């Protein structure tokens, strides 16, 4: 029986890398995989998903997926990166595909935005998903990071603004709740081995 999965984590927790590895592993088993990203996600080009560690693959935009899925009968698995940028109704559509067409759907994304507020799609996934898994990462202090702090060009936490601002390490940092609330951001120098 197919399931709706939500695999979430803070920024930098390897969600995209894991989504791309899942796609590869499913294809190795002979499954037909539909790799999707929301239309708003444009950091790596219109139809490409790329992880920070260098894994990448061509994908389909969610709007194209919605147009095509009714005509496709060869889909075994749907993998969606940045699922937090979908709508609650989009999540309802995915749940219907699981239930009516027996397609496994794996959604990867953030639970909360930079203010600590849950994204609508993430909230709906928590309500509907058959299986919810946290992908963990660490704060600079060594504790589990659960918050996504938006930072300015000086490394200071930004507390207000538009919910969606595309960025990565230069715009966001994963923090534990304590350091998110206190505003303490520390950068660790990356060294060559």
Largest sheet: 6 strands, parallel
Strand proportion: 15-25%
Class computed from helices, strands and strand pairing: alpha/beta
What would you report as the Rg, rounded to the nearest angstrom?
Answer: 17 Å
CATH level-3 fold name of the largest domain = Rossmann fold
Helix content: 25-40%
How many beta-strand elements? 11
Record the SSE blueprint.
Layout: E1 4-8, H1 15-28, E2 33-37, E3 48-50, E4 56-58, E5 60-61, H2 62-68, E6 77-80, H3 88-101, E7 104-109, H4 120-128, E8 131-134, E9 147-151, E10 157-158, E11 172-175, H5 177-182
Parallel strand pairs: 1-7, 1-8, 2-5, 2-6, 6-7
Antiparallel strand pairs: 3-4, 9-10, 9-11
Helix pairs in contact: 3-4
How does this structure look, described?
The protein has helices at 15-28, 62-68, 88-101, 120-128, 177-182, and strands spanning 4-8, 33-37, 48-50, 56-58, 60-61, 77-80, 104-109, 131-134, 147-151, 157-158, 172-175. By secondary structure, the chain is α/β, with parallel strands linked by helices. Strands 5-2-6-7-1-8 form a 6-stranded parallel sheet, sandwiched between helices. The protein has a 3-stranded antiparallel sheet with strand order 10-9-11. The chain has a two-stranded antiparallel ribbon with strand order 3-4. Helix 3 (88-101) packs parallel to helix 4 (120-128).
Summarize the structure.
This protein is of the alpha/beta class and 193 residues long.
Throw out a few tags for this protein.
193 residues, alpha/beta, Rossmann fold, six-stranded parallel β-sheet, three-stranded antiparallel β-sheet, 22% strand, elongated
């Amino acid at each position: 029986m197919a399931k709706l999965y939500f695999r979430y984590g803070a920024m930098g927790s390897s969600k995209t890398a894991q989504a791309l590895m899942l796609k590869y592993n499913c294809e190795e088993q002979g499954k037909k995989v539909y790799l999707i990203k929301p239309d708003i996600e444009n950091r790596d080009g219109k139809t490409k998903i790329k992880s920070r560690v260098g894994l990448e693959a061509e994908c389909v935009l969610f709007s194209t997926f919605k147009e095509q899925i009714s005509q496709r009968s060869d889909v075994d698995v749907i993998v969606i990166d940045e699922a937090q940028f979908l709508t609650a109704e989009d999540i309802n559509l995915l749940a219907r595909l699981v239930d009516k067409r027996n397609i496994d759907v794996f959604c990867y994304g953030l639970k909360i935005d930079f203010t600590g507020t849950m994204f609508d799609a993430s909230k709906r996934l928590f309500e509907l998903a058959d299986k919810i898994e946290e992908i963990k990462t660490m704060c600079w202090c060594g504790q589990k990071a659960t918050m996504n702090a938006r930072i300015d060009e000086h490394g200071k936490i930004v507390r207000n603004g538009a919910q969606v601002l595309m960025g990565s390490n230069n715009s966001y940092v994963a923090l534990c709740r304590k350091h998110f609330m206190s505003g303490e951001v520390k950068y660790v120098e990356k060294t060559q081995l």
